[in-house]
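Need C-alpha cells for this chain, all 91 residues.
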Amino acid sequence: MTKFNIEAVIENIKHYFKVHNSNLVEISFERKDSGVGVPELNQLFQRAKELNYEMFVKTQLPLRAMNEPVYGMGNEENVVYYLTFRKGDNK
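Here are the C-alpha cells for all 91 residues:
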C-alpha cells in the first residue's frame, strides 16, 4: 500500500479541469488499496476548499451475501470512495 498523496490528487484534479475544460471531476478508489480514511478525506476536503472546489463523498460497501455479517465502515477495508469535485464560480 502506498501513502495517499493529497497534493498529487489536487494536481490531477487541476489538470483535468484545465485539459477537459470541465467544472466537474469524479474519482474513485478502494480504501484497502489507497490507505485512505476519514483523516485523509478531511485533509483533502480542506485543500479542495482552499481552491474553491466543492467536494462530495459517496461510499459503497462491496456486495455480499445476505447471511454474511456487515461491519461498521471504520472496520471495512473494502469500502469504495467516490469523490466528486466541482469547481467554484470564481476559479
